[in-house]
Amino acid sequence: MTTADPIEFWFDFSSPYAYFAAHQIDALAARHGRAVAWRPFLVGASLKLTGMVPLTQQPLRGDYALHDWNRMARLYDLPFAMPARFPVISVAPSRAFYAVEATAPAVAPQFALDLFRALFGKGVDITDPERIGEIGAALGLDAAELAAATRDPRWKEALRERTDEAIAKGIFGAPYVRIGDEGFWGSDRLWMAERWLETGGW
Amino acid sequence: MTTADPIEFWFDFSSPYAYFAAHQIDALAARHGRAVAWRPFLVGASLKLTGMVPLTQQPLRGDYALHDWNRMARLYDLPFAMPARFPVISVAPSRAFYAVEATAPAVAPQFALDLFRALFGKGVDITDPERIGEIGAALGLDAAELAAATRDPRWKEALRERTDEAIAKGIFGAPYVRIGDEGFWGSDRLWMAERWLETGGW
Fold this sequence. Notes:
Chain A is α+β, with helices and mostly antiparallel strands. The first copy, chain A, has ten helices and four strands; from the N terminus they run βααβαααααααββα.
């Protein structure tokens, strides 16, 4: 690992905790001269391996999570409302992200953040290729190409590879930050990831 | 809730994350003029309700936890080794704690901390009433009385009541801090509990 390596930010667009972390990760990395590789994946594959069900379906834990998300939104002064359908099947926005990363990498992080904001901040259905196209268009991307990208085998394959990579790296939840080989699970561990960057590890 | 109310620190002696939090909670509360009510309970009852298995038995998540505990121990400069048998059945030390709380409340937090340190720092079997007696004796308590307390129906009942109380309060894991009605799960949320104390909530 060199200092020039980006830190990896693994997430599923369906994760409220990832939504909050997504607002902090670029600034956190920049404070230590690092870039961020945004890495959407399908966390459902990891949940299956670990025997977990989506958080909102877990007794007691689901109620806590709902309360906690609203509390975090107030703390970080971000809009937050649960999507009408949850969990969100994040296949389409994730494929679109990898298309943008390959063709217009400079706007890819902003595109990811705007997808998150549309979903949790504005109640937009980001599983709909048309909505994805509109979100991209606001950043100067071609809406029709972006909508088509959600069905393109290239980005379908890209997402599958990233999801396999996540599992190979032991990533069992989202968000999950990797600095070199060191992993930090959860939006409430960003402080520790930052300590790791500050100190070079311990 | 008045400022004079203690904050509640719910934990299971078997939890490594609670071991780390136990070293921080009194100082955290004291910085805001608050006392701490130490509340051991049997987290297994909560895990059963939520369908969870002990962390070390979960694929991927168990490996992460082991790595994470060692990493936290280095960060906080605390000794740490996994007990020979894990999870630890924490019935006996928890009953002993409630006996000490009722009869010598001033030393109860230190007694709890010493039990944690014996288990995770020195590899002592704290399920053994004799070892519990020795740990208490080092604090000036009567070793034989303490060993007997682990089988006393009064403290058996006290532990059962606290475990029921935990479930009634929606406490699904350990450690878990309550400030008034506000709950914070996990040793990695102490920063948020502290923010809550600083601000009076948000």
